[in-house]
Amino acid sequence: MSSLPSREDAWKLLCEWTQSEALRRHALGVEAAMRAMAEAGGQDIELYGLTGLLHDFDYERFPQAPDHPVKGSEVLRGLGYPEEMVAAILGHASYTGVPRETHLAKSLFACDELVGFLFACAYVQPDRKIASVKPESARKKLKDKSFARGVNRGDIIQGASELGAELDAHIRFVREALVSRAEELGL
After folding, report:
1. 174, 140, 150: which is closest to 22 by C-alpha?
2. Which of 71, 59, 76 is nearest to 24 (CA)?
3. Could you report the per-residue pLDDT of 21-72, keeping only the tens digit for each?
4. Roughly how many angstroms between the first and final C-alpha of the chain, as a whole number?
5. What are the residue boundaries of the structural domains of the chain, listed by start?
6. Closest by CA position to 104, among listed 26, 175, 1, 6
């Protein structure tokens, strides 16, 4: 495995390619969830964190499938990011056909859409805080197809399944990871 660039370098890359504050917050949210996943599973926290931080870094420049995340993955390879990270980023988009074989890849897929969904749940709270989101109410909102329409509920359910996690437990886990970084996330 090649050495991992620093978080500072990854953040600079994200900011260079991503101007949207909302997309940057999403990246920070997925990073928080991925770091928690790594810690809970005894995995490489930096590798998981940077994978979460950079998984959508190319989205503003290449929003259409299959360009995202394929073009960004080429950039990451060129910058020396490890192949395990690149494969996980490619695998978070099912249409790339890259299988999610590692815990890293399964974790990214399981966290990405759920983080976006939990952000949406926080935004409808009177105080707009993630700490106010009850996991049970988030689970109920998953059934409401008109709420956060852009979120792929199938990916959320499939992601938890691929991890071998019970959906309610996974929702609670990711919510707690976001609560731990709520101030940085603006939640």
Report:
1. 150
2. 59
3. 999 999 999 999 999 999 999 999 999 999 999 999 999 999 999 999 999 9
4. 35
5. 7-185
6. 1
Q: How many CA atoms are closer than 13 Å to the CA of 62, on its beta-carbon side?
A: 15
56 contacts 23 by C-beta, under 8 angstroms: yes
Amino acid at 13: L
Is the overall model pTM greater than 0.90, yes or no?
Answer: yes
7-185 is classed CATH 1.20.1420: no
Q: Which residues contact 99 (CB under 8 A, 6 or more apart)?
A: 91, 105
Amino acid at 103: H
Rounded CA separation 10/21 (Å): 16
Task: Give DSSP secondary structure letters for 99-163.
Answer: ---SHHHHHHHHHHHHHHHHHHHHHTSTT--GGG--HHHHHHHHH-TTTTTTS-HHHHHHHHHHH
Cβ-contact 159, 93 below 8 angstroms: no
Residues 170, 97, 61, 89, CA torsion sign: positive
